[in-house]
Fold each of these.
Amino acid sequence: MKGRKILVTGGAGFIGSNMVETLIQDNEVIALDNLSNVDERYVEPFRSSGNFKFIRGDINDLSSVPGLDGVDVVIHLAANSDVRNGAENPSVDFQNNVAGTFSLLEYMRKSEVKEILFASSSTVYGEASVMPTPENYGPYMPISSYGASKMACEGFITAYSHYYGIKGTIFRFANIVGKNSTHGVIFDFIKKLQKNNRELEILGDGTQRKSYLYVEDCVKSMIYVHEKSQKTDIYNLGNPLTTSVSRIADIVVSAMGLGDVKFNYTGGVNGRGWKGDVKIAQLGIEKLASTGWKNRYDSDGAVVQATKETISQMGL
Ligand SMILES: NC(=O)c1ccc[n+]([C@@H]2O[C@H](COP(=O)([O-])OP(=O)(O)OC[C@H]3O[C@@H](n4cnc5c(N)ncnc54)[C@H](O)[C@@H]3O)[C@@H](O)[C@H]2O)c1
């Protein structure tokens, strides 16, 4: 992507700040974020660039946000990214994700912005009976309000695409890991071990298995695939193999140079970390591979690299 004016919603967050870093050399980038999940620390390094502007604003209220004229492309990452609290408060997923995406699409319609890249999630599939799960698997039966909200967003994007000639590329992410984390299993384990390096509480039974993708592979493949794709389409982004939660605990403990750490499994809900947690998530990535894209790190490699980077960012 070169010479475009790009609005990155959620641009101060984990994936957003990595996206800004990738785009900023060759594009004019506006990061919009309401800072509900993170402060401005990850966008601070871009402030000196003439190509960058940060706007503190909410996707639910874009009409009051100045400076959004002439945008060519929206990369839509703003969302409630915490899957865990859905059962206690599903309205957060509805407000931030569904209503927020609708409001963003209305801004795009009125301002004639014709391209959107959207961060969806493997959670739309729910507990899929086919593994690895391809994009055309169905019916979707999400088991969390987060997954349900992403499914609704996908539908609005394809409808707006049909009505108003918007090209939408929808990406169903595996678990994304890497620098500037704001949440997730690696981040949680490191924080817990920082407080107590003799014991580690592990949500669930540790056998939960998911595919992990390094954040740089995530943002670069999004741009690569969107540019190759001729029409509105949906792609899984992930790695072919999975990494278990217990294996992640081992990787984190070893990277922190700790010896005897006692793992305390909560057992969770049928071995899940929490109500709404999908126990095994493995995405089919043949469609991604057919574009010619190759990830730099596999699932275990992504976890190892992300652990190193997170430990170093926390100054440990
Ligand atoms: N990290 C993952 O593993 C993963 C997996 C699947 C999908 N996703 C999706 O990728 C996107 C980015 O996730 P992330 O991991 O970087 O999370 P993140 O929480 O670090 O980033 C999201 C950002 O959006 C901002 N935000 C939230 N609601 C907003 C609103 N109403 N208006 C403006 N800004 C708002 C938050 O302050 C935060 O900075 C999200 O849409 C998330 O659902 C992430």
Note: The chain has two domains: 5-176+213-237, 182-210+241-281+298-313.
Amino acid sequence: MGNGASILVVEDDAAMRDLLTEELGDAGYEVKAAASAAAGLEVSRAERFDLVVTDLRMPEMDGFDLIRGVMALPEPPHVVMITAFGSIETAIRAVKLGAYDYITKPFEIEELLLVADKALGERGLRAKVARLQREVEATYGLGNIIAKSQSMRDVVSLVQRIAGSTASVLVTGESGTGKELIARAIHYNSTRAAGPFVGVNLAAVPEGLIESELFGHKKGAFTDARADKPGLFVEADGGTIFLDEIGELALPLQAKLLRVLQEHEVRPLGATKNQRVDVRVVAATNKNLEAMLADGSFREDLYYRLNVIHLDLPPLRSRPEDIVPLAEHVLRELGAKQNPPRKLRLSPEAQHVLLSYHWPGNVRELMNVLERCMALCQGELIADDDLPPHVRERRPADFLGAAVARRMSLAELEREFIERVLEDEGGNKTRAAQRLGLDRKTLYRKLEEYGRVVGETEAEAAPPVVDDRREPDRAEPPADLPRSTEATVPIPRVDPNADEFD
Ligand SMILES: Nc1ncnc2c1ncn2[C@@H]1O[C@H](COP(=O)(O)OP(=O)(O)OP(=O)(O)O)[C@@H](O)[C@H]1O
Ligand SMILES: [Mg+2]
């Protein structure tokens, strides 16, 4: 007890005042005393107290006036009122005015100590909650989301626009693009911000436990259910539930989740009644849910329920404008946490390296790279060779990375892929079409679009041209890129409507 909290005792009876002051002091509190409500109010204006213990009946100004006075202070203390035995009405009035609790005369000193301890404990908790709340708001405030690129600015503006809505949101994007950050931002910038944000990673909960985790259970519902458990939907009542990795949810559970979303009610395992919940759902995945709809591993009706608002987070490599601002943001945050704090800057060469890399792990990977830099770099300036070798190696390691670096459009990518597959099949269009999942007529039409005019011989067919659309100021693609111009394939003369055209 005690732990240095400060208490003001306000009591006109000198003997009682001295007793309370002494006992509370012995319990480890810092205690001051005032002989009247007016004097008490004056000291509590001059210095901050955690708790005021006051008598009710005092001449001139009484305990009620004191409560009113201290409640108007910028940081009001908790108040415990001492009332006469049997006057429950005065106790109620005191609590209504803002007193934390009351004790009735006569009382044991132990009783007072207990109430004081409880009041101060609650006060500490309240202060902690308020601090955490401020911290959380600072972290997930929109100002903390780095969004220089148009695509991220669009995301942030959508988050703002949906603040007042309770519609479900589906957040998609590659791993490390900021899905969880956005999910929290949606909550903390919404009208439900004061309610709870409850997150669950569905990939991390064993399948057999998901139902009770989400919807709760009654004691005895299954062997390990030793007590009632409310479940995350109930915990999130009035707030937001974040269903991360929604693509991992098994089909039977998808059906149960759908029912909850439709009915706004949950039924804990083993319960006989449904419970109403008011919860906003934000789901996230890095899986391609449309592909899962197509192969039947994700329910279409659930998909449409979750996907009322869709936020697709672009990969970092497609928004290079964000890379340096993000890096600077991360360096600032990491630097402030060091002891002593550090201020690191990126050399222009290091910035260039960061901009050339393809960031398969997106923002999270960028953070890890910078954390490593911070540990290794001695000075204030991060040079390019402070960056890990695989990042410095500017060649995009994969075909898609190369395609991105070349700023290819989807149509160009498709064309290149089709031509590569055709080449791989030795020019056999039937097999190529099969492999591509296209019917032959479609493939034929596409080849025609590419300028492989049917009816021309191999020599006459114009080679496909890809690079002439690139703007002159863009960097040359690295030498190891797949080049469709090298893949000329013999195009025999055929009739597109004929059954066999190879
Ligand atoms: N635009 C941004 N501004 C500031 N920080 C960001 C931004 N995007 C992501 N981050 C930070 O990057 C890290 C990864 O983000 P987050 O965990 O939200 O990604 P994710 O998409 O959920 O990843 P995963 O798919 O791996 O779960 C977090 O520390 C997050 O705060
Ligand atoms: Mg995540």
Note: Residues 179-180, 244 surround magnesium ion (ligand 2) (CB under 6 Å).
